[in-house]
Each structure stands twice: as structure tokens, then as C-alpha cells.
Amino acid sequence: MKKTMRIFSLLLIATTVMIACKKDTDPADKDFFVGTYRGSISYQKDDNTITSSEGKVTVSKVGETYNFFFGNNIPDIKGVKFEKSSDNNYVSVGSGVTGISINASTLKVLVSNNGATWTADCTR
Signal sequence: where (predicted)? Predict the structure, then answer.
């Protein structure tokens, strides 16, 4: 009986470890994109142009949408949804916010909305 219990316990532990180590977790579900990306950023609307080769974009997640907080007095982009385009790479979807590509290490932005254009080529 002790031997049977020991074997059953080992099988239960092995099953738990295998389930815990399963690698099908979507990176977007784990908030891997949240954080600060640094690199070249710009904004242009009418005669107002802001550029920085040492800019930053901070990404946060609220519910199922992402917010992009730019440095250098560049207006923020909020309420962005994403869909998977390839392994661990996501692109923005929705009216007025298409043109954002993100993964755990890079952020690329080319968004035109209401006469304004945001760009970013950043890494972390």
C-alpha cells in the first residue's frame, strides 16, 4: 500500500510540473509588452513638429487595451487593441490607431489620425 501511494504521489507531482511548464501562454496575456521602450520618436500636426532621437514610450495595459505614453510633450495614444500577426508579434487594430507593431523587445509606430502623425522606432 505504501508503495502504491508513493507511486501515485510521484505521478501527481510529475503531472503538476508538466502542466505548470506548458508553453502555450500568449505573451499578450502576460503583459510582456508593458514597460518603457526607448529610441527615436516624433509627432507632427500642422506646424507643430516634435522629434527626439532619445525619446521614450511607456506602454500600459488597462483591461484589453493598451495606452502609449510618449515623452517630450508628445500627445498619448490610448485605447489600442492588438491582434497577433506572427510569433510574439502583435499589430494594432481599430479606427485611427493602425500602424503600431509591438513585441517584448521592439515597438514601431506609424499612426496618422485627425491630421496628426506619431512615429516611434524603439527597443528595450
Answer: 1-19
Contact 82, 94 (CB under 8 A): no
Indicate the domain borders of the chain.
27-123
User: Which CATH number is correct for 27-123, 3.90.550, 2.40.30, 2.40.128, 2.30.29?
Assistant: 2.40.128
- The reported pTM is 0.74
Give yes or no for residue 22 having a pLDDT over 70: no
- Retrieve residue 48's grid coordinates: 507643430
Q: For residue range 61-111, what is the model confidence (pLDDT) as tens digits?
A: 998 899 999 999 999 999 999 998 887 889 999 888 899 999 989 999 999
Q: Longest C-alpha distance within the chain, in Å?
A: 83
Res 32: pLDDT: 76
Backbone φ and ψ for 115, nearest 5 degrees, come out as: 80, 5
Between CA 101 and CA 85 the distance in angstroms is 9
